[in-house]
Write a structure and sequence with these properties.
The complex is a heterotrimer.
Chain A lengths: L10 H8 L9 H13 L6 H9 L6 H22 L5 H9 L1 H33 L6 H17 L2 H25 L18 H8 L6 H4 L10 H31 L10 H8 L1 E2 L3 E2 L2 H31 L8 H12 L6 H38 L6
Antiparallel strand pairs in A: 1-2
Chain B lengths: L1 H6 L7 H11 L13 H11 L8 E8 L2 E8 L5 H13 L21 E4 L2 H9 L4 E4 L5 E4 L29 H11 L5 E8 L5 E8 L5 H17 L7 H5 L11 E3 L2 H9 L3 E5 L2 E7 L3 H5 L3 H4 L2 H30 L7 H11 L6 H21 L5 H18 L5 H14 L5 H38 L2 E2 L2 E2 L51 H5 L5
Antiparallel strand pairs in B: 1-2, 2-4, 3-5, 4-5, 6-7, 7-9, 8-10, 9-10, 11-12
Helix pairs in contact in B: 2-7, 6-9, 12-16, 12-17, 14-16
Chain C lengths: L1 H13 L1 H4 L11 E11 L6 E8 L18 E9 L4 H4 L7 E3 L5 E5 H6 L2 H9 L10 E4 L3 H7 L8 H15 L7 H10 L3 E7 L28 E9 L2 E6 L1 H10 L7 E7 L7 E7 L5 E5 L6 E14 L10 H30 L7 H5 L5 H7 L1 H4 L4 E12 L18
Parallel strand pairs in C: 1-4, 1-5, 5-6, 6-7, 13-14
Antiparallel strand pairs in C: 1-2, 2-3, 7-8, 8-9, 10-11, 11-13, 12-13
Classes of the chains: A mainly alpha, B alpha+beta, C alpha/beta.
């Protein structure tokens, strides 16, 4: 294996680089945990309301549907990464598209990512404020959460990965605990009729695939994976699988406890469910404990977003040290998040726009790269390949 | 893309390292004076050097060596006088049987002793200070030092801080030779290397480095040796505690080396690819690199049977969270999340708080501060009044304060649980870290309730996880997943622990010859089948 | 490095975090905990009267200090002609502490309000407060909620919150009342289905017919003594308004037929088939729920129910030998089946004709027959329920006599003095 060779020159640096715990690499388990936190936390916010809007009582099937639609794209992206083994997405697109087009693509990714980060972070801060901290000003909550997230991201990607892999069992455990807590309030017949809104589900899913575009943003860091594209494939599949099962379970719980169509009248499903959870006669009203685990998951989720944004900005601006860009990015996110919008309706509208634009730009970009890679591969071998 | 990777640095640059690189180029040499041949001159120089007119310890014994005059010099108290007279002076007073010379300059009468010839005054003074009597002979260009130092020392005792119920009960003492002997008794292999460096200008402690050649990663050894060289080049007067000179982050709350006074623990860690650093006059060994699990495990986890080991670790983990979070959770629950408390308890607490003048935060801080006071004081209390203070402090003060309605009774319970749980952590340095971190959590809970606790937990997790002790991450077999014996939280039965923890990158990967676990090589067919196992 | 130096100068500003007020901090002794909220019809249209029952925390203190002797256990505050959301701040005119409704044990709504006003609007308004909980029980009282709260002084419970908590556990044991909470009501309302609320009162009236036992509504039980509050039976709310009441026994059977009865067993007494004055006491175990088949293919929905009964006959005062004689036992079994069948069918008829509402919540079973929501909405089960054909089969799965001797067995005579 690679790390068994060492040279005597600057042994300290070599030790640092080749030690599996410090060589800035993400292993399989960390990737699984990262993908879980990227996607699983979405089941606890207003994304659930979107799902109910698309699919009615069959909202719990939507993660499965999304997974089915994601499968071919994951395989394609993995194929792309394996053709340029060990290189990150921007390098590959520089090879295939040229520098200026890659700049444009990175710029679009950056802008969209910042918009999504700001919108989501503000909505999470608002959720916490409305449900738990009624009198605290939103600026303060938003600022504190942003500060912690920025600090966690500042420690580096491998630190985020390790924190994620440490917290993964606790997230799953708290989910199971939640299930047992609301068990006697659930009526499983609320998930019927089974196919909710019918064929509309499939078209809406395809239009809104931008919800799960985060895992493809992670391809930017493909050069940091231990084991290259194989790790990416396994990690993404398993991570998205676990997140999908978790989200399915959560939405199933929401449907059963609140009833359909009663679930449309509840704004923050996860918080309300944790308020209902009870264990026996004395242990009830423990939503603050679930708040704790939820905030931990949220911090990891947004730390990844922030790190990705800083990385993209670093590519665009070509600064000396990537970590100096944390301050401008954090400040931008903070000030952009202060923009007041008057009602929750506007949040839904903005979110939907961003998701549409993401679906319309990111997936075609990846497909274009895959196409170009196959064509170039065909030219290299001198045979024409039909794609 | 390569320029991006090279610019991404988030490690604290080691200033010792840069200093070491500087000093590598210009190594200063200490001045040396050769030994004069005439006895009277050399004695006069030595007496000047040691301020013999003021110094009562500098003893000279004049004797003869054959036809020449000789003088035996030693520092009183560092040598055993009876032994000197028996072994050195007595034979010298007898006439020479024949002129057979084993050493050039010294002869067969003293050949049974460990003799080292010295040529410079600095070397003579070093040996004198180390307790070796030196024989100066008129006309010879070398003096001879006998290594028979007899510094007073302590007998081997039970360990103070690391007691086990089932296992060896030996601890290190201050003398480095005895400690070395203890370690060698546990690890009897010729590959156990013991390197000695001398540091400090005034203090001249010898710092020993232990490692097992063939297991430990050579670059780790080189790292530590470079740091030691840097310290030596900086020419400190005294190196009191080598840990604080070697560690990377002196301001951090977390220790990067394990401190232990048990030789069996040192031996176990050496066998897993760690390095042990010991110092003369300091009965503790430092083990580097240290992960969190090194600090968390006690030797009893391996000496006791499996169910007890699991149970003990579970209790310790629980105690860790208790001591860190109990006051903070109490503040968060009573100030921000009233509904968490079951209503009976809530009514009881609310009822008992009606008469108390302070808000909850102030009460907690008051109680925590007094508990810390008691802890600090109890280290220094003379043993005669120790138990009395215990009774006075705990029972009477606590009871009286509750009855005077200064604090509420729940507070006493909270603080007592916290204090008790803080002793459950096996490592002393980490226990300090937890005690200090507890106050940060109290502050976070006081500002924002459970949100504050969760945010601070996330931030401190990110900090701990990116803390590197000599290049090894702090949570290593768990957080960046590295193949190992999975001896992290629940251990396997001892016969099944056959892989070395690969975090230290040892050169030897296994502890035993089980063919299943030798599948770490690329071409082994087992590797294909058992994909998810190391 | 230079950046770090400048950053260090900003560190003191982080201490401002500590100086900034903790906005949500509540001190325990500064809080008034509300146990019950009662809603009544206000004298102005569109307004409600809200009554808060606030507990005195010092009565529950740990007995190291001196508990306040002269303070009352709880106080009631009524605010007239207001809206539910304004209550918390308005009440601070007469209450010293900050009102906290996170420990509310029950909601009381008076019948007059429930019959008049859309309950959904009121409850949804209360739920907007984040301190309010969705699993709070809701009780409908016959008289004004204010009066109920005033008269509800349980004999054994010092602090009033214990009353509701223990009562809830009793409800789980007997099945005489439904477990109604805000969450299930909102859910049923969104489905358009009727919902059963607990019905309670403190006014006792004379019973109309004697010997009804469980089969009475609250306030008409033949009972003397005990706590002043009587809770039995249910109130039916359909589309936000109250349309009727059920007796205790009817409630139990309604829940049973809807697969909602979550208790282990219940006691029913039957008149003896041949010897009329005597009553046979049985305990019916709730081992398997009734199987419900909804067939929507024809013009009218066809609902088939099979109710298995596991009966344990506990006492036979008429001394008829049902234990050993198999013919008599079969006769008893058939008789029990018939009686239960009649009771159930009466109930179904009442639901279809009198109230015209699907109180058994059979729409949940109808939903599984459809594939999409639009198909289900087009079918409109609620309207068609009134014409539905309901076939009920009561099957006595087991009849058990427990550990008892045969009626004619007597103990052997004492071996006294020979």
């Amino acid at each position: 294996m690679k790390f068994m060779k060492y040279s005597t020159a600057s042994a300290q640096d070599v030790f640092r680089q080749n030690n599996p715990s410090t060589n800035d690499r993400i292993g399989l388990r960390e990737l699984i945990a990262i993908d879980f936190f990227l996607l699983g936390v979405k089941g606890t916010d207003l994304t659930a309301s979107f799902f109910f809007q698309f699919a009615g009582s069959a909202a719990w099937l939507l993660p499965l549907l999304i997974f089915i639609f994601l499968l071919p794209i994951i395989f394609l992206v993995t194929h792309l990464l394996s053709q340029y083994e060990g290189k990150s997405l921007l390098f590959i697109s520089e090879q295939l598209l040229g520098r200026s087009l890659t700049y444009l693509a990175a710029f679009v990714l950056f802008v969209l990512g910042m918009a999504a980060t700001v919108l989501n972070m503000r909505s999470y801060a608002q959720m916490t404020g409305i449900m738990f901290y009624g009198r605290t000003p939103l600026i303060f909550l938003y600022g504190v959460i942003l500060l912690t997230t920025a600090y966690v991201a500042y420690r580096g990607l491998e630190a985020i990965g390790r924190v994620a892999s440490l917290l993964l069992p606790y997230a799953v455990f708290s989910f199971v605990l939640l299930y047992f807590g609301v068990y006697d309030m659930m009526d499983y017949r609320a998930i019927f009729p089974l196919f909710g809104q019918g064929w509309k589900m499939i078209s809406e899913t395809i239009l809104h695939l931008g919800f799960v575009v985060d895992i493809f943003y992670f391809a930017l860091f493909a050069s940091m994976l231990k084991g290259g594209s194989r790790t990416y494939k396994h990690g993404t599949l398993i991570g998205v699988g676990i997140a999908g099962v978790g989200t399915m379970g959560l939405i199933f719980m929401y449907t059963d406890v609140f009833g359909y169509p009663g679930v449309n009248q509840v704004l923050f499903h996860y918080q309300q469910i944790t308020r209902i959870a009870h264990y026996g006669q004395f242990i009830n009203h423990i939503e603050a404990a679930f708040l704790g685990t939820w905030i931990l998951a949220t911090v990891v989720h947004f730390a990844l977003y922030l790190y990705t944004m800083v990385y993209l900005l670093h590519y665009l601006v070509r600064s000396e040290d990537m970590f100096r860009l944390f301050i401008p990015v954090t400040a931008a996110v903070f000030f952009a998040g202060l923009y007041p919008y008057r009602s929750e309706k506007l949040f839904f509208i903005y979110r939907e726009w961003i998701v549409w634009i993401l679906t319309a730009t990111v997936y075609p970009y990846f497909l274009l790269l895959v196409l170009l890679a196959r064509i170039k591969g065909g030219k290299k071998r001198g045979r024409k390949k039909t794609s | 893309m390569r320029w991006m990777r090279s610019k991404m640095k988030n490690q604290i640059v080691m200033h010792y390292e840069s200093l070491a690189r500087e000093h590598d180029q210009k190594k200063r040499k200490r001045p040396t004076t050769p030994l004069p041949r005439r006895l009277s001159v050399s004695i006069k120089l030595l007496k000047e050097r040691f301020y013999a007119d003021k110094n009562a310890d500098f003893q000279t014994r004049h004797t003869v060596y054959g036809q020449k005059r000789a003088c035996l010099i030693y520092l009183q108290g560092t040598v055993d006088q009876a032994l000197i007279e028996d072994a050195i002076l007595a034979p010298l007073n007898h006439p020479l049987p024949n002129r057979r010379r084993l050493h050039p300059g010294i002869d067969a009468r003293l050949s049974s002793l460990d003799i080292e010839p010295l040529a410079t005054l600095e070397a003579i003074s070093d040996h004198l200070l180390n307790g070796h009597p030196v024989l100066l002979i008129d006309g010879e260009k070398e003096a001879y030092a006998f290594s028979m130092n007899a510094f007073p020392e302590r007998a081997i005792d039970k360990p103070d801080n690391e007691n086990v119920l089932k296992g060896p009960h030996e601890a290190f003492t201050e003398k480095i030779e005895k400690n070395t002997a203890l370690i060698r008794r546990y690890l009897r292999t010729p590959r156990l290397i013991h390197e000695m460096h001398t540091l400090g200008r005034l203090q001249k402690t010898s710092v020993s480095l232990f490692y097992v050649e063939g297991i430990v990663n050579p670059s780790l050894v080189e790292t530590i040796k470079k740091r030691l060289d840097a310290i030596e080049a900086l020419d400190y007067d005294s190196v009191v505690n080598i840990e604080q000179f070697i560690e990377e982050r002196p301001y951090s709350l977390l220790p990067s080396m394990l401190t232990t006074e048990r030789p069996d623990r040192v031996a176990a860690h050496l066998a897993e690819g760690h390095i042990a650093i010991m110092q003369d006059n300091f009965p503790y060994a430092y083990i580097a690199p240290a992960t969190y699990w090194t600090l968390f495990h006690t030797p009893e986890d391996h000496y006791a049977r499996l169910p007890y080991a699991w149970f003990s670790r579970a209790i310790r983990t629980f105690a860790f969270f208790l001591t860190l979070l109990t006051p903070a959770v109490y503040i968060a629950a009573t100030n921000y999340h009233l509904e968490m408390i079951p209503i009976d308890l809530l009514m009881a607490i609310a009822g008992s708080r009606e008469m108390v003048p302070f808000p909850v935060i102030l009460e907690i801080l008051l109680m925590e501060f007094s508990f810390e006071l008691i802890r600090e004081a109890s280290i220094r209390i003379p043993s005669q009044i120790g138990p009395t203070i215990g009774i006075v402090g705990a029972l009477i003060l606590g009871q009286a304060a509750v009855q005077a309605n200064i604090i509420s009774p729940i507070m006493v319970i909270v603080v007592a649980i916290t204090g008790l749980a803080s002793y459950a952590h096996p490592d002393l340095s980490f226990g300090f870290a937890i005690r200090i971190a507890r106050f940060f959590f109290i502050a976070a809970a006081a500002i924002l309730g459970f949100l504050g606790i969760a945010l601070l937990l996330a931030a401190s997790l990110a900090y701990i996880v990116s803390f590197k002790s000599f290049g090894v991450g702090y949570f290593t077999p768990w957080a960046p997943y590295v193949p190992s014996s999975h001896d992290v939280f629940l251990r396997k039965p001892l016969p099944d622990e056959t892989i070395m923890p690969l975090a230290n990158l040892p050169l030897q990967k296994t502890k035993a010859n089980r063919p299943r676990y030798l599948a770490l090589k690329e071409k082994d067919q087992w590797r294909k089948k058992r994909r998810w196992r190391p | 490095m230079a950046v770090k130096k400048h950053l260090k100068r900003l560190l003191p500003f982080f201490l401002l975090l500590f100086l900034s007020g903790c906005w949500d901090k509540i001190e325990l002794e500064d809080v008034a905990l509300v146990t019950t909220i009662g809603l009544d019809k206000g004298s102005l249209p569109g307004r409600v009267d809200v009554t808060l029952q606030i507990m005195n925390a010092q009565k529950a203190t740990i007995a190291l200090g001196n508990p306040a002797e002269k303070e009352p256990d709880h106080i009631n505050v009524t605010l007239r002609n207001t809206t539910p959301i304004l209550v918390k701040d308005q009440a601070n005119a007469v209450i010293t502490r900050r009102i906290n409704i996170s420990q509310v044990q029950a909601f009381l709504i008076s019948e007059a309000l429930a019959r008049d006003v859309d309950l959904y609007q009121i409850i949804a308004a209360m739920i907007r407060d984040p301190e309010m909980r969705r699993e709070t029980p809701v009780i409908i009282t016959k008289e004004r909620a204010e009066t109920f709260i005033k008269h509800n002084r349980p004999k054994f419970e010092t602090l009033i919150y214990a009353f509701y908590r223990f009562k809830l556990n009793r409800w789980k044991d007997t099945g005489d009342v439904p477990l109604s909470n805000v969450n299930d009501f909102l859910r049923a309302h969104a489905d358009g289905a009727p919902y059963l609320f607990i019905y309670a009162t403190t006014e006792r009236k004379k019973a109309e017919t004697k010997g009804q036992g469980d089969d009475t509504i609250a306030g008409r039980m033949e009972v003397k003594g005990g706590d002043p509050a009587e809770m039995i039976g249910a109130a039916i709310i359909h589309k936000g308004k109250m349309i009727g009441t059920l007796t205790g026994e009817e409630t139990r059977f309604t829940l049973l037929l809807g697969q909602n009865l979550r208790i282990a067993s219940y006691y029913v007494a039957f008149p003896d088939p041949d010897h009329k004055p005597w009553m046979i006491s049985t305990r019916i175990k709730n081992e398997m729920p009734p199987t419900i088949d909804v067939d929507l293919k024809g013009k009218r929905p066809h609902i088939t129910l099979t109710v298995p009964l596991y009966v344990e006959v506990l006492s036979i005062p008429s001394n008829v030998d049902y234990v050993a004689d198999m013919r008599l036992q079969n006769k008893l079994a058939r008789y029990l089946e018939q009686t239960m069948h009649k009771t159930f069918m009466d109930l179904v008829q009442k639901a279809q004709q009198t109230w015209k509402a699907d109180i058994f919540n059979w729409y949940r079973f109808a939903r599984s027959q459809f594939l999409t929501w639009s198909a289900y909405e087009a079918y409109d089960f609620e309207k068609r329920f009134q014409d539905a054909e309901v076939t009920l089969h009561v099957k006595l799965q087991m009849i058990d006599f427990g550990k008892q001797l045969r009626p004619e067995d007597t103990l052997p005579p004492l071996k006294g003095k020979h």
